[in-house]
Amino acid sequence: DAGVIQSPRHEVTEMGQEVTLRCKPISGHNSLFWYRQTMMRGLELLIYFNNNVPIDDSGMPEDRFSAKMPNASFSTLKIQPSEPRDSAVYFCASSKGEWQGFPEQYFGPGTRLTVT
Amino acid sequence: EDKVVQSPLSLVVHEGDTVTLNCSYEVTNFRSLLWYKQEKKAPTFLFMLTSSGIEKKSGRLSSILDKKELFSILNITATQTGDSAIYLCAVDAFNSGGSNYKLTFGKGTLLTVNP
């Protein structure tokens, strides 16, 4: 099993540019989660999907952030326009089971985003 | 607003010591509490606790939940250098006002085990 795959692993971009982070969940998992981790705020859940449908996006910080899951094997998190305060490690995680709750999740390796 | 507080923030011990990590929470509509271990990269799942007083155990790690006092502890016995990591606690709660669930993480405890 390849685990959760994220790309790119590192991204450096200039303020104002669009950034797209990608995630491939574990095959057979029907829930997908996007997190952001910073020293100041710790690990924060941004949005989660169940069966490709966004269930709760209340953690998305502002309208500059958007996420999609067009099919069961792919999701994107987009930031447009990016700002220096968006610099963080972004994790994607997947799990199988009921959407109501957070059963054991498997995390990807993360994307380290730096916005200058 | 839901709150999860972990203590201590950091801890340095010697191999062979036993450590206890704490997690207290204030949430409405609690569902479960989860522990994760984060080494250099991504968090890995350790335990999920839903009932008070029932210990979950995996090797040298164990955890228990007290839903009356709103806290959980994670114990690690006979620590090894490989236990060095950030240990994260998270609480899963029903999102009042909606039909969703919300997961709130603590800031973590950084454990360093020296040889």
Task: Provide a descriptive summary of the structure in words.
The complex is a heterodimer of chains A (116) and B (115). Chain A is an all-beta fold and 116 residues long. Chain A is 0% helix and 53% strand. Chain A has no helices and eleven strands. In chain A, strands 2, 4, 5, 6, 9, 10 and 11 form a seven-stranded mixed β-sheet that branches. Chain A has a four-stranded antiparallel β-sheet with strand order 1-3-8-7, with no helix packed on it. In chain A, strand 5 and strand 6 (53-56) form a beta hairpin. The mean pLDDT of chain A is 91. With 115 residues, chain B is mainly beta. Chain B contains no helices and eleven strands. In chain B, the strands form two sheets. In chain B, strands 2, 4, 5, 9, 10 and 11 form a six-stranded mixed β-sheet that branches. In chain B, a hairpin with a 4-residue loop joins strand 4 and strand 5. Chain B is globular and about 45 Å long. Chains A and B meet through strand 5 and strand 10 of A and strand 4, strand 5, strand 9 and strand 10 of B.
Entry summary:
Helices cover 0% and strands 53% of the residues of chain A. Chain A is mainly beta and 116 residues long. In chain A, strands 2, 4, 5, 6, 9, 10 and 11 form a seven-stranded mixed sheet that branches.
Task: Give a topology summary.
The complex is a heterodimer of chains A (116) and B (115).
Chain A: E1 5-7, E2 10-13, E3 19-24, E4 31-38, E5 42-50, E6 53-56, E7 65-71, E8 74-79, E9 88-95, E10 106-107, E11 111-115
Parallel strand pairs in A: 2-11
Antiparallel strand pairs in A: 1-3, 3-8, 4-5, 4-9, 5-6, 7-8, 9-10, 9-11
Chain B: E1 3-7, E2 10-14, E3 19-26, E4 30-38, E5 43-49, E6 56-58, E7 61-66, E8 71-76, E9 85-94, E10 101-105, E11 109-114
Q: Helices and strands of chain B: which structural class? A: mainly beta
Tally of separate helices of chain B = 0
Shape of chain B: globular
Task: Based on Cα principal axes, name the global outline of chain A.
Answer: globular
Beta-strand fraction estimate of chain A: over 45%
Low-confidence stretches of chain A: none
Largest sheet of chain A: 7 strands, mixed
Protein chain pair with the most extensive contact, residues per chain:
A-B, 20 and 23 residues
Radius of gyration of chain A: 13 Å
- Kindly state the mean pLDDT of chain A as a whole number? 91
Number of strands of chain B: 11
The helix/strand series of chain B, from N terminus to C terminus, equals EEEEEEEEEEE
| Succession of helices and strands of chain A | EEEEEEEEEEE
Specify the structural class of chain A.
Answer: mainly beta
Poorly predicted parts of chain B: none
Please report the distance between the alpha carbons of the first and last residues of chain B. Answer: 41 Å
Averaged pLDDT of chain B, please? 91
